[in-house]
Specification:
Low-confidence stretches: 1-20, 28-53
Number of strands: 12
Distance between the termini: 53 Å
Structural class: alpha/beta
Mean pLDDT: 78
Radius of gyration: 27 Å
Shape: flat
Strand order of the largest sheet: 3-4-2-1-5-6
Helix content: 40-55%
Order of helices and strands: HHHHHHHHEHEEEHEHEHHEEHHEEEEHHH
Length: about 525
Amino acid sequence: MPSPLANALADDVTGSTSELDAAGLQALARASLSDDASVDETAAHKRGPFRPGVWLNARERARARLSVHYFHAIDGLVVTIVTLLSLFLLTPEGLGKASVGDVLPVILGAVVTLGLMRSIDIYRFGRDTSGIIHLGTVGALVIAGGLGAVATGLALGGTNYTLWLVWPALMLVSLYGLHLCWLELIRRMRTTGALTPNVVLVGATRHAETMIREAMQRRDLNIIGVFDDRMARSPKAVEGVPVLGDSEALMSHRILPYVDRVVLAIDPKAEERVRDLTRRLGALPNPVSLLVDSADGKLRAAAMERLARTRLARLNGPVDDDRRAFNKRLQDMIIGGIALILLMPVMAVIAVLVKMDSRGPAFFRQRRHGFNHEEIVVWKFRTMKQEAADATASRQVTHDDDRITRLGKVLRSTSLDELPQLLNVLKGEMSLVGPRPHAIGMKTGQVESARLVADYAHRHRIKPGMTGWAAIKGSRGPLHTAQDVRRRVQLDVEYVERQSFWMDLWIMIVTVPVLLGDRLAVR
């Protein structure tokens, strides 16, 4: 008998209007542990994918993977502070008069310690990492840096032995304290599911049954739903995991923001079916994999190991998506924070003017699609009459639109109405640069915009932005034709594939002159 959660999730496909957000999913998970559940079922859910606490969306889990970058940055900051304090406090004649032979060894020791910590990948924090071994490694690296400092000092003829000995001791205590915190944070993230990937399977097959059973035993992989095109023959649940609909239902299902990967659990020999599903599911922002099994199960076990090995971002090696995401997030927090502080007086004046110009609140909130189909609430200054507000963008804005207020025309033409989205940026829901977030259910003509372009969902593979490549290339404002939608999506996908710090910086620099010089755009 399927669990209450299975029924609730299945109802979502068949037309339930209840919100399937994180809070709702957790409530359903708690309901699945109710008293009327069987002992076996309850025990399974306590250790399985529906236990409360694992319902973090993909953006939140991506943020957890980037923790190592923050750990390394804080380590570097603390090492720098400890080194400077040691130099100031342990040079009797004053730092300005200290000899190079006394000061340079400590600086080199700090650089060597941080370099070794990064080069040997000490920030990987694997699932089987021993805390004792990890702290022992940290201690060994600090000692190596200290010995390097002493050797360098002796070679340069330095005599400040106290500095060379006290500095590594302070470093050891500081880094031990920090890494005890890092180990505890990683443990908590694993417990809450922040580092446990969520997977949905396509195909209610024997491969799916075996994979779900093994996932329940491993406890390092959450299989949260099954989709199958043969719904008439499919069970309501596979090994306790609900069957939520067919592959078409998956394309727009509200569980997508919580999914890290879609796995095809069908026979690879069914080549035509595999090609068809791969082509259709390729439009999703979620990565898609094919599960290849063998008679002895070794290939399946290897595939599950790769899926479950939710890696923390790497610090060394070539630049990858995780490092780009970290750099982008750092850029958003620094530039976005400064912009919010500087523009706060301007925003306060605009808010007062909006209230004076027409009846209603100063701000307008609208639900839009964010990263990986996540629903976010985007903030703007209200530019329409309160009674004409269009939260779903069912009617696109036109020239001389009678819904727009007098002040609203000015705010829209200058994009000043978008300034409150700096709050979305600092919350991590948006970025300064990215594809513009479209309203959920936005229509072009009488057709939902998302249905006009096959690659539409690709623009959700990165967080939406306040400005973007499309905006400075002339595609801004409403989309009145299918051609407008295709051009916007083409530019957005081009940005997703090319994104870099320098590209973002260029887009931010040219945004204001481009928007102010664009008198033809209707917003």
